Automatic annotation (TrEMBL):
Gene3D superfamilies: Ribulose bisphosphate carboxylase, large subunit, C-terminal domain (3.20.20.110), RuBisCO large subunit, N-terminal domain (3.30.70.150)
Protein name: Ribulose 1,5-bisphosphate carboxylase
CDD domains: RuBisCO_IV_RLP
Species: Fusibacter paucivorans
Family, similarity comment: Belongs to the RuBisCO large chain family.
Domain Ribulose bisphosphate carboxylase large subunit C-terminal: 147-427
Residue ranges of every copy of the Ribulose bisphosphate carboxylase large subunit ferrodoxin-like N-terminal domain listed in the record: 22-135
Length: 440
């Protein structure tokens, strides 16, 4: 009698399913030399949908047909065809694609994740490489309220990247100190100023209403000088039960953007905020802690999967790492994250990627070569550690942006621009090979 793990209820070609009805997980899976990869993939499909490690009496072929996940691809790397080529091989590696019926979880994101990367996350040598979302799953998500076009319209920024600054020090300062630093960065030309991820909600030394009121007063003062709008992203991260109250507290105090540490609060918390009609300001998502999900090459999930879900859940702005500063993220991963945030995803608006972690004026050309102008340059110490002060650090960044957008040479055009000249003197230019010896 045919092994049930080879059955049609568990195995299809991609052409044998309607992709709109499924969410498809793609995995890297390691297996022992003599393990049957078809059975291994089917076992994953069963474990994560209708069954267990042993047959269940009520798990009928009819139930499996409708609710069991389907293996739609098993690809060995390298692609062995003959037994003799396996001589000396101890472990074999596969890319497996498994399709999960949307009917199992509808638009319930936690349940979808429990299905696609639930119990199997504990298996050795298994990493989720991608999730392809079917139309039926995505259609109930609203995504970002503003997106890239909405942010440009809101702020009147056209033809160039946005400039962001993170208030430094990261935490431990009073609202008065923060507002002083805020003004210096804003008046120098920073578009978007955010709290660091390490200060959020109400702390004993820095309450939401206090920092919002003082920072927005500083923004108003700076805007009158520079003739541009400054966005303040107030970090409301807290226990989930306090998030809505924190958001409304910040909005009522005058903030024009809110921020949330999305891994700590959860993706569904971000979705709750983004889809709430009372929250009418952009949302910045910081993925701090995400490395625990994706840093291992053989476990967890890929970074671009996380970013795709953050976009789906409604973040207008998403913080990620530049590969050129203090983080050693692969360039290809950084580009795949950009793709996840900005490429077509049904009717979901694109999110603005924010690249931080060591960005300086000498990195502007390289970053715009990679990402184009639809991005945010996230500059922390590159503003606050400028030898001439935060205002000069911001001016230097805007000078560099203008020069690169105009297609001119940065070092040639920096002559006579004292803020930019000083930044280049201290931190160098990436194209010259200066990468690891600047402040971060």
């Amino acid at each position: 009698m045919r092994n049930a793990f080879y059955s049609k209820e568990l195995n299809r070609m991609f052409e044998g399913i309607n992709p709109d009805d499924y969410v498809i997980g793609t995995y890297l899976v390691g297996a022992k030399l003599n393990e049957d990869p078809i059975i291994k993939a089917a076992s994953i499909a069963i474990e994560q949908t209708t069954g267990s490690w042993v047959d269940i009496p009520e798990e009928t072929p009819e139930l499996r047909e409708k609710y069991a996940a389907k293996t739609i691809g098993v690809y060995e790397v390298p692609d062995y065809e003959n037994m003799e080529n396996l001589h000396g091989v101890e472990k074999r590696w596969y890319v497996m694609r498994i399709a999960f019926p949307v009917v199992n979880f509808d638009d319930n994101l936690p349940l979808m994740l429990s299905s696609v990367i639930g119990n199997i996350a504990a298996l050795p040598d298994l990493k989720l490489l991608d999730i392809e979302f079917g139309k039926k799953f995505v259609e109930k998500f609203k995504g970002p309220k503003f997106g890239i076009e909405g942010m440009r319209k809101l702020m009147g920024v056209q033809g160039r990247p946005f400039l962001n600054n993170m208030i430094k020090p990261c935490t431990g300062y009073t609202p008065e100190v923060g507002a002083k630093l805020f003004y210096e960065a804003a008046v120098g030309g920073v578009d978007i100023i955010k709290d660091d991820e390490l200060i959020a909600g109400d702390t004993a030394f820095n309450r939401i209403e206090d920092r919002v009121k003082l920072n927005m007063a500083a923004a108003k003062k700076a805007d009158a000088v520079k003739g541009e709008m400054t966005l303040y992203c107030c970090n409301i991260t807290d226990e989930m039960s306090k998030l809505k109250a924190n958001a409304m507290k910040a909005i009522e105090a005058g903030t024009n953007c809110i921020m949330v540490n999305v891994v700590g609060t959860g993706l569904s918390a971000l979705r709750m905020l983004a889809e709430d009609p009372e929250i009418n300001v952009p949302i910045l998502a910081h993925a701090c802690g995400g490395g625990a999900w994706f840093t291992s090459e053989l476990q967890g999930m890929s970074s671009h999967v996380l970013n795709k879900m953050i976009r789906l859940c409604g973040a207008d702005l998403v913080v990620n790492s530049s590969p050129y500063g203090k983080f050693d993220i692969l360039h290809s991963k950084y580009m795949k994250i950009t793709q996840a945030l900005t490429s077509d995803l049904y009717d979901i608006k694109p999110s603005l990627p924010l690249y931080g972690g060591g960005v300086i004026p000498g990195l502007v050309k390289q970053t715009l070569t990679d990402a184009g102008i639809d991005c945010i340059l996230g500059v922390g110490a590159g503003v606050h550690a400028h030898p001439m002060g935060p205002k000069a650090g911001a001016i230097a960044m805007r000078q560099a942006i203008d020069i690169i957008i105009a297609g001119k040479d940065l070092k040639t055009e920096a002559v006579g621009k004292k803020e930019l000249e000083e930044a280049i003197r201290v931190w160098g230019v990436y194209e010259d090979g200066v990468k690891d010896n600047y402040l971060i």
